[in-house]
Amino acid sequence: MDIDDEIAQAQAERQQKEEEMVALGGAQSGVFDTNLYTSNKFEGFDSSIAVDEEGDAGQDERAEGMARKLASYTAPKQILEDLPRGDVVEDDLGFKKPSRIADREDEYRKRRLARMISPARNDALAMGDKTPDVNVRTYADVMKERELENQRAMTMRSIEAQKEAQKQAEQQRSDAYDSSVPTRASGLQPQAAEPVAKPSGEKRRNRWDQGTGGEAEAEPAKKAKVMSQWADIPDATPKQSRWDATPTPGRIDGEATPARRNRWDETPTPGRLDGDATPGGVTPGGMTPTPGMTPGGVTPTPGATPRWDATPTGSMATPTPRKGRSRWDETPATVGSATPSHVEQTPGGMTPGLGATPVAGAAYTPGITPFGASAMETPTPGQIAGRVPMTPEQYNAMRWEREIEDRNRPLTDEDLDSMFPKEGYVILEPPQSYIPIRTPARRLLATPTPMGTPLYQMPEEDRQQTFDVPAQIEGLPEMKPEDMQYFGVLLKESEDEELSADEQKERKIMKLLLKVKNGTPPQRKSALRQLTDKARDFGAGPLFNQILPLLMSPTLEDQERHLLVKVIDRILYKLDELVRPYVHKILVVIEPLLIDEDYYARVEGREIISNLSKAAGLAVMIAAMRPDIDNVDEYVRNTTARAFSVVASALGIPSLLPFLKAVCQSKKSWQARHTGIKIIQQIAILMGCAVLPHLRSLVEIMEHGLVDENQKVRTICALSLAALAEAASPYGIESFDTVLKPLWRGISQHRGKVLAAFLKAIGFIIPLMDAMYASYYTREVMQRSLIREFQTHDEEMKKIVLKVVKQVVGTDGVEPDYVKTEVLPHFFQAFWVRRMALDRRNYRQLVETTVEIANKVGCAEIASRVVEDLKDESEPYRRMVMETIEKTIQNMGTGDIDPRLEELLIDGILYAFQEQTSDDSNVMLNGFGVVVNGLGIRTKPYLPQICGTIKFRLNNKSAKVRQQAADLISRVAVVMMTCQEEQLMGHLGVVLYEYLGEEYPEVLGSILGALKSIVNVIGMTKMTPPIKDLLPRLTPILKNRHEKVQENCIDLVGRIADRGAEFVPAREWMRICFELLELLKAHKKGIRRATVNTFGYIARAIGPQDVLATLLNNLKVQERQNRVCTTVAIAIVAETCSPFTVLPALMNEYRVPELNVQNGVLKSLSFLFEYIGEMGKDYIYAVTPLLEDALMDRDLVHRQTAAATVKHMALGVAGLGCEDALVHLMNFIWPNIFETSPHVINAVMEAIEGMRISVGPSAVLNYTLQGLFHPARKVREVYWKIYNSLYIGSQDGLVPAYPDIENEGMNTYKRYELELFI
Amino acid sequence: MQASDRFNINSQLEHLQAKYVGTGHADLNRFEWAVNIHRDSYASYVGHHGMLSYFALAENESIGRVRYNLMQKMLLPCSLPPEKDED
Known about the structure:
Chain A has 67 helices and no strands. Chain B: Belongs to the SF3B5 family.
């Protein structure tokens, strides 16, 4: 009895809560309905692509998104994004972690998951004259469906509009009537709740919507996020609730309900209902099947629908006590009765044993259950029923639940017997009224759904299912948990004989796909080949029915998608015309690739669609995509337009023109016109200048769009013209003649987005014009609107205006005077403001435009306007000014800068340089360098001031400042020389010398760099401090491990060794030699190269003997890189000091019985002969005995290196009469041709190639002829390989040397021409 | 063969060479090789004017005729291929 009371109490409480909630939360019930049907479900999304969209969407999507979010001055995030990070980013490019595609997709792209993989369609071409089967979807059917869908959407919109109007009217009335009564209060009266609460809810919602609505266009992402919090999920997934669901069970959790929802939804406490609001969204209306729309779908029995849809909605919408009994509270009996009804709903193909599982899967996520149910209603019920639609989370939940269940199982009689003493206790009969509560409601996790029977079930009933062990079948790759829903059926052991032929085929395909998706490369390769080879046997239907749902999986990763797309690509070739019925299906899956952010995905998508159109033909492609052209969903239209452009590029524009014309002139819907014009835009973007032959017809097709009644059509038309003009540039102005007038009229008629698009079009068309026209039209457009639009606050408009200005100003006919007088004042007033420097894209655009203007009007004009701003208080702004000045001076020089401006300029850059706090991109430094170098000798008066600043800043506390100062020295050193300020430089040298004790390696590196630049311009003799003091100071710095320090230091030391070695005693150089050996370990190639060169300089300065001794000793070290560098250094020493100074010692070293040393010597010889080239002819006889020995050595590496030496030698002395020695060496080389080690055989083959050059092909051919027809195939193969490279290298040279073959029967083999003799 | 060998030039060399007409392989027979040799020789004669004029002089033909003959001979330089033994 207690329990009943408790329940009653709990129910009452919950009911009260619900009522409160209804009142508080604004009557969700009302919201859902209107929401699904009447509100514009695409609000928050751009209904057309942004005006400034240049190429493919997504190229700059990220930056764009960030730019939009940027509402204030704090822009650090995206500046941080742009920080140059060296090579780090590129380094790990190849080892990207596998990333799920769905994770990085934005809301707009996620909409791909909402599309239906449409059932196969009729192949009209294959049918011939036959009437299509009633069950097959024909083109007419699809069009009819689309029509219905569109009409429905329209109706819903109009209803929404009506309601809106009504509501407003009502509200006005109620406001006037009694403004003191808060609408929320009305929710407290249960009976009146619905009618009154709804408007109040609507109102709130609207207000809320409007709140974001203002910014909605700017920040769709944010909005979408908030929307989903608002339990507004149906909005985000418009298609889900629709009845014609797709056969991708897995995607449910991917989109509508984030995974974490599941956790919350599962526990059946009353309070959860609010979290559970989602199912309410699927109102009966949403689920009501319109039978005509579900070909092949399973119609739910009447018993099923109300239970799944009506109940949750009802329990929330009308919180009356009568209906308060939600399904949470249902007793087992009820549940039991519900079970069959649910099972009825599942597709008929489901087996009883497995039946429990999909149901359980659905039951765990009540929030989305209706979706799940509808998602399971696929055209091919048999497949899905077989699969186990369980997400990993569900598996875990299930396992956990079973475990808990097991521990908390009811005690059996035996248990009780063992626990209690035998005596003193009586076993009572349970009362009649007692029903053991084993309702699922009491379970921790499970919802009281018809999961299994109400009776207790042994957990381990199904021994096949091992939950913790990753599922794996022999011979197949490992399955990830998320693969279970697609490949789970493979786990089911079953005899092949039991399965029908179709099922066997299906399993076969499934196995192959699993191998492709998860297998090792060899597995993948063979599976791919099998799929390709057997594609026609499998048939298009079974293949695509399995591949396409996989591609829609929300857990798909990039690599997997790539592989699956590859599968499609391959089987497309094989299937050819068989794909026709599946074209639309494939397009639905592939089209999203066209707007993927990954470039390669876009390319792949294009390739597939192009192959598809070649396989299916134009007619089929058009028939497949025609219904999507006027789809209400903008996403569908966008992707379709892109797909069409690919078709156009695959099959040629002319074949598509008639269709495009018809679409662009569609009277029925503006969407069709919009898409048609968009197709042209995409064609222009995709094909570039290849549109030129068809330019006129393309323009003619869409020119009427400029005066279309619909604003979106006008916009896209202007954008398409811009794209066409850009693609055609610099040709094709005559094709645009007809649109000039409407464009010009348009810019004075339109405002906002449309105007932006029109301006963009004009901006691209003007540069195509003749000078005269360009000048006229530029004036026109400036006067009419451009200058006015300078003042705009719209960011997009700003960017477009800047771009247009850049384009028109750069055009030939535009006069500098005109720009100066008419444009510049407005331009600077409007754009040169601090705010522009904060957004990266604005910044870049403004700098580019200003530089372009400067190219027209001259440097001084621009510099004088901005120079004052170098002292602006905003650093980003100063940086922008500096960059502009830098680029301008770089382009235009400083010829027209007068002394006054010069002063201001120097003053400004000094100020800007000193005030900089963070300059990662070196704008200030570069700017300073460019300005100073541009001014050249005119800098002289300012040099003392500049040097003073530098000196002062070298002493600064901040390391960054010191580094900048030192870097600046290296930039101005050349100018100081030009101004003959040697004394000043000497002074700076001394100062720098004093700072060589610097602790920060970055700064020290810069200081060394500065010293180097001074030494470079001032020369060794005049350098202060004198070289003999400077160098000993550098020796210890060589020990520094920092790369920047090493590089700058070795450069400086090398420079001194090269130019001023005599200033330093030989002993010091020897000391440096030892230090240099360490530098050979450096990671950076530049450092190692500089080091090796320095060895050469030092050897030249102090003679090779000592250096050589050091280097030869170094050959004994273990480290390979070190030895290799040493050998190079030896070769360089030999080159700089003539080989004869080095060879004796080197050859002597070969006698050391140590592998490394001998190889080192051989390698040195190899480099040496490579460097000295034809000088080698004097030494070839000297080293031949050594090489003989090496070529006969047992060690492979000996022979390999010796072969490389012979190659270099042979190439060096070709034609210099050393054939005797070379032939001798070749006799040693030749036996090595059968080596199998790749390096050795490579070296040997190259040596033989070298011989071909130096001793001639005939000689080598004679060696080769011995084995061409050898009885052993292995021998023949090697010889033919040599013959082939000989033949390719000197085909003509072989002609005289070919053997004389005797005639044989009727075949003449003799070459009689060669026997002619005069 | 190691995994790394698969990607070096050596492994691809034969494949690369096989793309050219006139290269041989281990199963080439005398006739095929001779055909290649003859065609190469004719091409070489035609390419070197000195050779052409020498032949013309020796055969007492015009240079053009000699060139024409040589090019005609390239069709079947060693007449028809011998019957293949089936054993």
